[in-house]
Amino acid sequence: MTAARPDLLSALFVDARTTHRFLPETIGDALIHRIYDALRLGPTGFNAQPARYLFIRSAEAKAKLAPALSSGNRDKTLAAPLNVVIAWDSRFHEHLTTQFPSYDARGFFEKSPEWIEPTARTNATLQAAYLFLAARALGLGVGPMSGFKPELIDQAFFPDGRWRALLLANLGFAEESPITPRGPRLSFDDAARIL
């Protein structure tokens, strides 16, 4: 058994905070690809990969994003070097013949379409968490949020209706500042049971 690496746990959880201010340094394509190459390896149900990622860096794309943002998130989101919309693909199951060949999972979803959205949303949310962890492991700050109007993002970026916005995050190299106190967290006894 391998012992946990305290430095990695610190980088991903203990010392990590939601990042609100970033250095004005561009996040290049190579780093975006490294994030994706790491996150796609995280486990999901049926080995499905329903998450879809729209990385927003250009001023034009940020202008399209702006109307969907809540007033409290607009300035910091537009100032971040990189934004990512995590969406879910309503036809993710079409890939399951190659992603999960040991079982006809595609056929299952075609016969039971009511399972498409909950399965896609659950697993895309897992994949969003993998994205956040991969970005942190690669030295980036992450500012995840739900303060936006998904329907406006869908209208602006996914008008065909196949992809549907789920989460939004700001990414970049965090501006150096003292570690802010962490907000309260539930204790183990408040949130968990061992049977």
UniProtKB/TrEMBL annotation:
A Pfam entry, by short name? Nitroreductase
Q: Which GO terms describe its molecular function?
A: oxidoreductase activity
**SUPFAM superfamilies, from UniProt?**
FMN-dependent nitroreductase-like (SSF55469)
Cite the Nitroreductase domain residue spans from the record: 17-172
Q: Which domain of life is it from?
A: Bacteria
NCBIfam families named in the record: PRK05365.1
In terms of PANTHER family, this protein maps to: MALONIC SEMIALDEHYDE REDUCTASE RUTE-RELATED (PTHR43543:SF1)
Record-given protein name: 3-hydroxypropanoate dehydrogenase
* Protein's organism: Panacagrimonas perspica
